[in-house]
Amino acid sequence: MLKMVVPTSALLMLTACAPQPSREPFSKLAEEFVYTNLSFSPVGATQVGYHKHNGVELDYLLDDFSPSGIEYQRRWLQGFRVRLQQSVEPAKLSPDDRADYDILQDQISLSLLEIDTIQNYRHNPTEYVELVGNALYEPYILEYTDKSTRFRQIISRMQKVPELLAQARRNLESAPEIWTKVAESENQGNLELIDKEMRATVPAELKADYDRAAKVALDALNEFNVYLKNTLSATSYPWQLGRSKYGGGPSTTRNSASCCRPIGVRSRCWKRRRRI
Fold first, then answer.
1. For the chain, which terminal residue's Cβ has fewer other Cβ atoms within 10 angstroms, N or C?
2. CA-CA distance, 267 to 40, in Å (whole number)?
3. 3-class SS at 56?
4. 3-state secondary structure of 221
5. What integer is the mean pLDDT of 88-109?
6. What is the DSSP letter of 74?
7. Which of 24, 25, 26 lies closest to 103 in space, CA to CA?
8. Is residue 72 part of a domain?
9. Does a structural domain hold residue 4?
10. What residues have CB less than 8 Å from 97, skipping those under 6 apart?
11. What backbone phi and psi angles, to 5 degrees, belong to 34?
C-alpha cells in the first residue's frame, strides 16, 4: 500500500483553512438554555409563566417520557455543551456571567446524570402521578389568562393522560415500596381533583367537552392505580442514590444548593437575574 507523506506546512495550511465553528454570545446561549429547558417540561413551564415556545402552546401539552422524547433531550444537552465549549472562554467572562456559566455546566451534568444514571423515570412512580396533578391544578388556579381558555388547556391535558401513563408503565421497571404507596395516595388526589373540584367549576359551554375528557383521564388513572397496587408493588428498588451515582454528578462544592432545586425554580430565579 502506498503511503502519502504530507508536509507539515501543508497540514497547517489545511487546518487553518478548515471552517471553524462560529462563536455565539454567551447571553444568547444562556437565554436559549433556559427557555429550551423549560419547553422540555410544558407542565413546569406553565408553573413559571412560560406559555409559548417557538410558536408551540405549552399549556395544552404534557411532558414527553417516550424513548424518543428522552433521547431528544439527551442529544440536545450533549450538543449544547459542545456549543458552549466552542463559543465561550470562561476566563474572559464577567464574574456574573462566569457564575451563570458554571450553573449551566452543572445543570447539563445534572440533567444527563438523571437521564443516564439516576433514571427516576424508571423507578419513581410519583414522578408521573405528581406530573398529572400539577398539569391540571396549575392552569386551574393560576389566572394567567381567562377561565375558559385555561379549562380548554385542562381538557387538552386530560385527553393526554392515558398516553402519559402508558409511557409510565413502559418505563417503570421497579420502585421502592414507599414510593409506590405515596403514588397511590397522590393519585387519589388526582381523581378527586378531576371528578369533584374542577368539575364543579367548569364553564357551562365546556361542560360536555370536560365530561368526555374527564372520563378518559379518570379511567386511565384508575387503571394506573391497579398497576401500582398489583404490579409495581411487587418490585423493590433502593431509594438512596448512593456514592456511585451521586459522585458522577455536578460539583458538590459549587452551586450545590442551586443544582439540587427543581428546574422550574432554577429557571425562574435565572430569569429574574438575567432579566430575560
1. N
2. 12
3. strand
4. helix
5. 96
6. H
7. 26
8. yes
9. no
10. 26, 27, 30
11. -60, -50
